Amino acid sequence: MARAAGNDGSTLPEVVVAAPLPGADLSLTQVPANVQRVTAGQLDGGRTHGVADALNQLVGSVNTNDTQANPFQPDINFRGFTGSPILGTPQGVSVFVDGVRVNEAFGDAVNWELIPQSAISGIEVTPGSNPVFGLNTLGGAVVVTTKRGFDSGGSGVQWQGGSFGRRELQADSGGHGERLDWYVAGTVYDDDGWADHNPSRVRQGFGKVGYRDRINDMTLSLTWADSSLQGNQTLPRSFLDDPLQAYTWPDAQDDSTVLLNLNASHRLGQDWTLAEQLYYRKVSSAIVNSNVNNDFNPSMPVAAGNEPTGNAIEQIDQYRPGAALQLSGHAAVAGHRNTLVAGLAWDRGATNFWQYSQEAGASRDTFSTAPPDLHTRLHASSRSAGIYVTDTFGISERLFLNLAGRYNDARVMLQDRLGAALNGRHSFTRFNPAVGLTFSPSRALTLYGRYEEGMRTPTPVELTCADPGAPCSLPNAFAADPPLRPVIAKTFEAGARGTLGGHASFTAAVFRTNLDNDIQFVSAGGGAVGAGYFRNVGQTRRQGVELGLTAGARGFSVSAHYTWLRATFQAPLVLNSPDNSAAAPISCAACTEIRVLPGDRMPGIPGHVFKLRTQYEAGRFGLGVTALAQSSQFARGDECNQDVNGPLPGYLLVNLDAHFDFSTRWSLFARIDNVFERRYYTFGTLGENVFTAPGDSFDATATSWRAEQFRSVGVPRGAWLGVSYRTGAAHPPDAP
User: Fold this and answer.
1) If 0-12 CB within 10 Å is exposed, 13-18 middle and 19+ buried, where does residue 388 land?
2) What is the mean pLDDT of residues 85-114?
3) Using CA atoms, how far apart are residues 130 and 432, in angstroms rounded to an integer?
4) Is the peptide bond before 250 cis (omega within 30 degrees of 0)?
């Protein structure tokens, strides 16, 4: 049976996740998708700092937009679809932790720092619009599995420190008896930030207890996390002589979460398993965003009621209970192998949102003692119910047919607690199908092809910020806006995977995803760079080619991933973009708009992504080199690809890591990122720079305000040293 290559010369297991709940694994030869996996070993030894960093370094077709300049708040783009912690970013990737979907209820955002890295046993990334994974799975699903005592025995502690004042302590311990097991893990992380105003503080805790016998398997886990993250925004190009400065500050987000998750499964005979899940998740966020006031009138004096800067202050409390039931098993049909998975999923989200505005004078430092003004208080509730089934039928020993589908019923209700303008009810229903074939002409080769459909419903954030006449700032200031249509994804993929001799394996895939009614954030322009609104933009397309190669021999291993990607608009559009040099009156004499044509590239997505990892292990010593490269990308606001600034340049980064094992228990490790100190940029947007007076101060007369391309500066060179101690590592025993 062919095995799929992972990174660092590792291989995927012969089974992969086929549905959110456990117990639905399929043989890899039966899966019509280019599945990638990150193992717990790849996360150890200080090589990555968080789930987002692990995906960026270790998974093909992933690139990042570091819009906040904070290590825990990047946008993760997979095949041109985004999983982002930034409220208001159009999302297209679903993220699950032990079967719980952790895209937030309010805006489908993903708070990466709330996932405890030290407790992760594996991450599996399934591409495409697989309907079994439910709403928001347009470009892929990230499935995180946590450790338990039967699989991860012993205790360990790891510390590292170095550049940017970074200090991190991780500890975990696990064990088991004949039928009971337990596991606990915790992380304490602090850094001062690599720039002037972007420190981070993260606390994570995880605990799990379980029971297992020959029929039953139950776990109860508790996840707790608390973080305080600050960023320094994008910078206008005229400010890039000092890349460590912030445009305005502070920009801070404090998150906390509690997740209680009960999973149980029962064997119904030899070949069938019934799995159940109950969970409750609460996330609280407090956000302060410094902004330029787009309503400032330069013809009037700077005074109360007409101050050029201000703060948007938000409090968001989200509550998410859910339940799921899944039946999976194997049963021969007319003498042919057959695997069936069928399930029910129910999820409810409730959000209380408060937003205040606060005047802050004319300084780039917007700290203010002015009384905040409450202008939005919203209660948003959502409910999602789904019925899904996937069946894999063995036409022959080498040919398998996969049929899947899911019926979704999603509803969103908005209640304005300060009036009635935001009130609304929205309902979305659809059945999404999928069909795929795999063929293994030999043990060394598997060929596959598939077609599948998925749906993303507009989030409460998007539904309340869709009026071009009343643009919002991000995080959003809400208004009574027109409804949005759901996004429908249709994905085609064909590929091959297999082995080359005894020491190498490969993957290759071509894919195309067409989106109908795609939702995009459209910049409004002006001094507030993050101001804009959401709208359906017709059809867009992400298509590309993925190639992967892994080989290893005599202590050496190499892993390479290359992606050619084109993310394009497929319908003509007229968009407001006053800071684009190509803007002109199109729909009205006073408008500043751009004309977007089919084939124009979408902002923020590079056309080429390349990753190379080489590693050498000799006894107790190991050395690794990672190269990350991507090509140019267009800035937000330049959807027509015609702005005089052009695209952001591509870049190549080289990272080093090494370890030395003093004994079976003690290990020393080191890491250097951006070895050659490259200046690079991960994201761009068009805006108006209003701090153009001498000393970069605010020009109250607007005589020198200028449209510029703003860029997110990449992290400079950093080095860290750490030590780890571990005792009593255990292999998973046979079930009693």
Assistant:
1) buried
2) 91
3) 9
4) yes
